[in-house]
Design a protein that fits this description.
The complex is a heterodimer of chains A (75) and B (248). Helices cover 89% and strands 0% of the residues of chain A. With 75 residues, chain A is mainly α. Helix content of chain B is 69%, strand content 8%. Chain B is built from seven helices and four strands; from the N terminus they run ββαααββαααα. Chain B is globular. The chains are: A mainly alpha (75), B mainly alpha (248). The interface between A and B is medium-sized, with 16 and 22 residues.
């Protein structure tokens, strides 16, 4: 495999596989948050802010994968 | 996609006494000037019955104060943390949103670097530079340490990381290491989001320039706000954790 092709594969796989975990994580987070709001609609405001915070942590992993993919492709 | 230059590092525009001034640095200076100018204009004639601009500023400040109160639970602590947290929020928000203005990334000059023809834009989103985000992240983490020492004293604060108790020693060391990973996590989250947004907009605009970029611009506005918000909120949470003594 040429170096060019290997780089393309590496970049594509980096973001593709790296997006799986955070995608699942954010989905589970949102599901639990929805459940909590469903059980107690008045607590919606209290649940929102910590949920957003936790989503930022989960999404950061996907962003690390994206940065690695971009570095492979453009550096 | 014939002539698109995507550069991970910010490109230097000119050199000031040997120090390279990059395009994102220029954008940062613009954002800082805008914020300082707005603050001075609003703050110069404060009246008891507010005018329009003062009203908007008061609304924003009240909203942020209430939000911070829900995290800290202590009015005095909120007042102490307010300046740095809201500065981080407003600075990052202004830099993120200014990067979406027309002219950022599009107006520039063609240069020849390392034998290749590249396009160097004059302005680039301030937070799309890893140096900027690492700097803000370091400020946030070091301020957390400062607040910890301010609130609970040097000994108790260091006790969190260097605990003589045999089981807690490793926990403390991992906590100490996690302070450094916080810097990396903060900076890469912000940088990745803004830089990826820039690249996305560039590629969409080069593929379908008419109407198709509009939802992506909306997405970028949203992402810019969320990233500034998350950075500031996470900083606040770490300040609060640092300022709380360990309970047994």
């Amino acid at each position: 495999m040429s170096e060019e092709a290997a780089k393309m594969f590496a970049a594509a796989l980096a973001i593709a596989i790296g997006g799986l975990g955070p995608g699942l994580g954010i989905g589970i987070l949102a599901a639990k948050a929805m459940e909590a709001i469903g059980r107690n609609p008045e607590a919606a405001g209290k649940v929102q802010v910590p949920m957003l915070l936790a989503m930022a942590f989960a999404e950061a992993i996907a962003i690390y994968a994206l940065v690695v993919a971009l570095i492979i492709k453009f550096v | 996609m014939s002539h698109i230059t995507i550069s991970l590092a910010a490109e230097p525009i000119f050199h000031l006494a040997g120090f390279p001034v990059t395009n994102s640095m220029l954008a940062m200076i613009l954002a800082a000037i805008l914020l300082v100018f707005t603050a001075r204009t609003i703050g110069r004639h404060l009246t008891l019955v507010p005018g329009k601009m003062q009203n908007v500023a008061e609304m924003v400040i009240e909203f942020l104060l209430d939000l911070m109160n829900t995290v800290t639970g202590d009015r005095n602590q909120t007042k102490k943390f307010f300046p740095i947290v809201v500065t981080i929020f407003l600075f990052i928000l202004t830099m993120n949103w200014m990067g979406l203005l027309p002219g950022f990334g599009s107006i520039g000059m063609n240069e020849v670097i390392h034998g290749e023809k590249v396009f160097v834009p004059f302005l680039r989103a301030g937070t799309a530079d890893l140096n900027m985000t690492v700097a803000i992240a370091m400020i946030s983490v070091i301020t957390a340490q400062v607040f910890g020492i301010m609130y609970i004293g040097v000994k108790k604060h260091l006790r969190k990381y260097f605990n003589p108790n045999p089981t807690m020693t490793f926990v403390g060391l991992i906590e100490f290491l996690s302070e450094f990973t916080k810097i990396i996590s903060f900076s890469f989250r912000l940088f990745g989001n803004v830089f990826a947004g820039e690249v996305l907009l560039l590629i969409i605009s080069s593929l379908v320039p008419l109407i198709a970029p509009v939802p992506f611009f909306l997405l970028e506005i949203f992402v810019g706000f969320i990233q500034a918000f998350v950075f500031a909120l996470l900083s606040l949470v770490f300040f609060k954790i640092a300022a709380t003594a360990e309970e047994h």
